[in-house]
């Protein structure tokens, strides 16, 4: 076990930050680390918007419903991005490329590129003693986020990341038992998986009942059913298509 | 600049591995690191298949057309996965959840979850002196990969990762200038971006002409146009829908 792995294993999402800014060098190193992640076919099919304008931060905080979208040392929004393919292109090239840009394959390419870059940014930040929180909640109103950041076609704002010096130390949330997410050669059968989920449900309930704050009775399976039963962000599908991606 | 950031900045994809296996502990630590990545709504909506069966490795290598899918110390396949939501569920719960599971929002959730876990795995491996290569090429025949690994509904094999002790030291490939992927508050205007791409095209051409192997004349924009102009993996769209995701 080395220090880097310690950093990975000690990750927890940070939602309260000290009132202490990042230096330009820190932001530079975080973005540089993001850029060095692997990228499919060398496309580098993502962009990052660093949000410093207080009005935009407030508006994004309203979209997400979370104060830490505004109250942090730095806010980044990670986007799947094939817009650069449109530049320095003839109309004919644009037309030829469109078959690919519109399919799910290239939506996967850009989404994965953005996520790999983001996770490098997260780890770089954590290695400097900073904390981070991913903000999927920006997709609560993906159209508005896109307008606020003036995103062109082929650019999808996937999630944000709040960064700053931690002002709390939440407990590490348990993860599924390894044999419920890691399989050898073949996917596990349902009976085996159901047993593992049962075990984890008990373990997680213990965690909820014994943690220092927000004690409650809950299970993993129960949470999933509950969360997935309310229609959520149904407009993301059309938004992505409207931007020219994942249409066919 | 700390040691962790050095590891991130020194990343290069490794495609030739020494004939030296990983220990069980190494694999365990890599998966454990993957599991500790952030996960949207605590869904942990991904799975990893470790492939050790030589026949399956050979078949996956045939799909990808790349020898290092077979010739490595360990092979993992990362999947977007909402199958666990189907377990311990009544028929009525399944029906209620389906509206969410079928939309693009939840395809993003699972794809990002898988990618964040994968990047933690990659970095954990690199911190141990191992090298990795992402294998999007498994999507060359995504149906066959799914059959080989016996993946149920709501499970999408996104990419593989070859891991092992590096047996070559490729040069670090340049990345886009930071101001072509990182913007403040608003997306950049096209003219500015086109100028940055022009600069990068020259820089990249220098890299290709001066590197130690496979010297050629090429540009970033030229590559993108060339790659995106050939229809690629058009069957991924239908495969994902067939598995129950990203349909509406």
TrEMBL record, chains A, B:
PANTHER family: NADPH-DEPENDENT OXIDOREDUCTASE, OXYGEN-INSENSITIVE NADPH NITROREDUCTASE. Residues 10-165 form the Nitroreductase domain. One of its GO terms (molecular function) is oxidoreductase activity. Belongs to the flavin oxidoreductase frp family. InterPro entries: Flavin_OxRdtase_Frp, Nitroreductase, Nitroreductase-like. This is FMN reductase (NADPH). The keyword NADP applies. NCBIfam families: PRK10765.1. Keywords: Flavoprotein, FMN, NADP, Oxidoreductase. It comes from Salinibacillus kushneri. Residues 211-235 are annotated as: Disordered.
